[in-house]
Write a structure and sequence with these properties.
The structure holds two protein chains of two kinds.
Chain A (H helix, E strand, L loop, with lengths): L1 H5 L8 H5 L1 H4 L3 H12 L4 H32 L1 H7 L8 E2 L6 E2 L1 E2 L4 E2 L2 H32 L2 H14 L4 H28 L15 H25 L3 H9 L4 H30 L2 H6 L17 H8 L6 H34 L7
Antiparallel strand pairs in A: 1-2, 3-4
Chain B lengths: L4 E10 L2 E11 L4 E5 L6 H8 L9 E9 L2 E2 L6 H7 E4 L11 H11 L5 H14 L3 H4 L13 H14 L4 E5 L7 H14 L4 E5 L3 H7 L2 E6 L2 E7 H6 L4 H7 L5
Parallel strand pairs in B: 3-8, 3-9, 6-7, 7-8
Antiparallel strand pairs in B: 1-2, 1-4, 4-5, 9-10
The structure holds adenosine-5'-triphosphate and magnesium ion.
The site of magnesium ion (MG) has 4 residues of chain B, from helix 1.
Chain lengths: 358, 252
């Protein structure tokens, strides 16, 4: 306080006391502050500079995305010119075995079909496994978890998202795959073999099923933390409304919470799908890496990301390289669309609910 | 038909905050009973103790006995069955936004597994007529969502939702506090009609409203029940000085 007083040797005594005697007592105090603020001017230039800087930062993201897209398009021209849209669905017939062949770099045959198939199968399998678990975790954490456990538990689920995928891959290779090989796969063949989705042609334990499981573990934290977010955005009055009708806890969660949060939960699931589609390392390590299409989930396959990671460094012919880039382009476009859609859904739910409505 | 409510030595806490202290009163069956008192005195807490909603708050605690229709709801019953018999209308309308008007009203029955279409239709119509909303919504029962109605319509929808499960007691926590005079008088008419079939407990800040709809009135102050008597007596000749001060507007 004393410092401020020193810096005000010339107050403006004339107007204040003359017009309002009551305000006179207050007048000397704020005047230094007022003069200090006035001396700062209108700050227009720094404001402008800040704005330009921020716009540049935001634009850089667009530029990066555009550059990636441009590069992928240019680099994949060769395949596009040669096979066009057929690249995504043709199969070649092997002259010797008369079996369909999709990917034969030696003879220059390239089709993306087995990789698209592998990506879709492993991703949807992972959703099938992860969604019930993730929603269960979210329900437990938001609605039933005792306060003491909540923080450590949500911290742990969140931590799952921070583990590098190579570690998941290693774990899958050393723990999951042997487990599948010895116990789970034989059991599946025995009990569900009739469906045709499980056969014993592949004794390694690798394949679509193994990658589906490891993907499920990897997308679990994303889906559950977003689901938790949209669930907490549901106002408390909705829960009370259901409870007051005589609902049990599960009925309250189903009608009062999940039903109100469903669009956001779908968004969370699609965001998980986006992650699963593009996941590379862990999948490459356990999917088996054979460019084939099998009905059995226990068979070896490959995925879009896996084939690029596996073959790009060794691709010698221009056509081979171009085919890989075209697969990358397809993956790029699909993941962007899936993620944009998911974000839109999550946003649609969390937007209209300010925190005071809870 | 409604049932009577006997409250004995009811105490309630929010954490360390002793919100209700030694409440004793008998609420008669098939009448409307009003609860008045300054903001924060514990009226909402009290009605929430009557259907065991109070304990859904993790920091809340309650002791004492509440007998509804002769049965102690804290000793002899589970919260879920009590809430099926004791309907509640909240201070702020809270319809289910993702459900149609029809499903909002039918929610309580559907929740409990009632699936007979024809009877559901009848219950929905009867409840909406009882809550004076039927004429305004009958054409888009299944087209419009609960959230698309106006605030007053939403509150009447919530009343219909509570009536649909045919409760014995209806608790209304300031049901008209957010409503315009027209909607308010509709709800008052409604309480007037309903009280022959239900036991109604209504919290209100509006003294005229209490005087208009209720036979009995209780005055709360700082977590205690200061006076409970016939509405006429409370408003014309209260026996406690504090009640008189409150209703004449000298404080609160
Ligand atoms: N959820 C809660 N958590 C903690 N304390 C609460 C909570 N709800 C109410 N209280 C406290 O309990 C006391 C009684 O609150 P209550 O809501 O019953 O008052 P009220 O009479 O209904 O007031 P109003 O007329 O404003 O609705 C208040 O002191 C309030 O601070
Ligand atoms: Mg209240």
């Amino acid at each position: 306080m004393p410092e401020i007083r020193i810096s005000q040797p010339v107050p403006q005594p004339e107007p204040a006391p003359a017009s309002e005697p009551a305000a006179a007592a207050l007048a000397p105090e704020p005047s230094t502050i007022r003069r200090f603020l006035l001396a700062r001017g209108n700050s227009a230039f720094s404001d402008y500079l800040f704005k330009v800087l921020m716009v540049l930062c935001a634009l850089s993201i667009f530029v990066i995305v555009l550059l990636i897209g441009y590069e992928l398009v240019v680099q994949s021209r060769l395949t596009w010119v040669q096979s066009g849209i057929k690249f995504f669905y043709t199969a070649f017939v092997d002259p010797d075995t008369h079996l369909p062949q999709y990917w034969d770099p030696v003879n220059g045959h390239f089709s993306a079909l087995p990789f698209i198939y592998g990506t879709l199968v492993s991703s949807f399998l992972s959703l099938l496994l992860a969604v019930p678990l993730a929603v269960g975790v979210a329900v437990f954490l938001t609605e039933m978890c005792p306060g003491l456990l909540r923080a450590p538990l949500s911290f742990l689920t969140e931590l799952l998202a921070a583990i590098p995928s190579i570690i998941y891959g290693l774990w899958a290779l050393f723990v999951l795959v042997p487990l599948l090989r010895q116990y789970v796969n034989p059991l599946l063949v025995k009990t569900l073999g009739w469906s045709g989705f499980f056969d014993d042609s592949n004794p390694t334990g690798l394949g679509y099923f193994a990658s589906g499981i490891i993907l499920a573990i990897m997308i679990l934290p994303i889906i559950s933390s977003l689901t938790r977010e949209v669930m907490t955005a549901v106002p408390h009055s909705q829960r009370e409304a259901v409870l007051a009708l005589g609902a049990t806890r599960w009925e309250m969660i189903r009608t009062g919470v999940l039903r109100n949060a469903r669009i956001g939960i779908v968004g969370a699931i699609i965001l998980g799908l986006g992650r699963a589609l593009g996941e590379t390392m862990a999948v490459t390590m356990v999917i088996g890496n054979t460019p084939e299409i099998h009905r059995s989930l226990l068979a070896n396959g490959s995925s879009m990301a896996a084939v690029i990671a596996n073959e790009f460094a060794e691709a010698t012919s221009d056509l081979h390289r171009s085919a890989l880039v075209e697969i990358a382009l397809a993956l790029f476009i699909v993941t962007i669309i899936v993620n944009a859609f998911a974000q839109l859904l999550v946003w649609a739910v969390t937007r209209g609910t300010p925190s005071q409505a809870r | 038909m409604g049932v009577s409510i006997e409250v004995q030595n009811l105490n309630a806490w929010y954490g360390a905050n002793h919100t209700l202290q030694d409440i004793n009163l008998n609420i008669p069956a098939n009448h409307a009973t009003a609860l008045i008192g300054p903001s924060g005195c514990g009226k909402s807490t009290f009605v929430r103790c009557l259907n065991r909603m109070h304990e859904t708050n993790p920091i809340a605690r309650v002791t004492g006995s509440v007998k509804i229709g002769g049965r102690d709801i804290y000793e002899d019953a589970k919260p879920v069955e009590i809430r099926r018999r004791v309907g509640m209308v909240f201070q702020r309308p809270n319809p289910f936004p993702t459900m149609s008007i029809y499903d909002n009203v039918a929610a309580g029955l559907k929740l409990n597994g009632f699936r007979k279409r024809h009877e559901l239709d009848e219950v929905v119509e009867k409840s909406l007529k009882n809550s004076a909303l039927w004429d305004e919504v009958k054409d888009d029962l299944k087209k419009k969502s609960g959230a698309s109605l106006s605030g007053g319509q939403q509150q009447r929808l919530c009343i219909a939702r509570a009536l649909a499960v045919d409760p014995e007691v209806l608790l209304m926590d300031e049901p008209a506090s957010a409503l315009d005079p027209v909607s308010t008088s509709k709800i008052e008419d409604l309480i007037f009609q309903l009280k022959s079939q239900y036991t109604i407990v209504i919290v209100t800040h509006n003294m005229q409203q209490a005087a208009r709809v209720a036979e009995k009135t209780g005055f709360f102050l700082n977590g205690r029940m200061v006076e409970f008597d016939s509405t006429h007596k409370i408003f014309t000749n209260p026996s406690d000085k504090r009640t008189e001060d409150y209703i004449t507007g000298r404080f609160g």
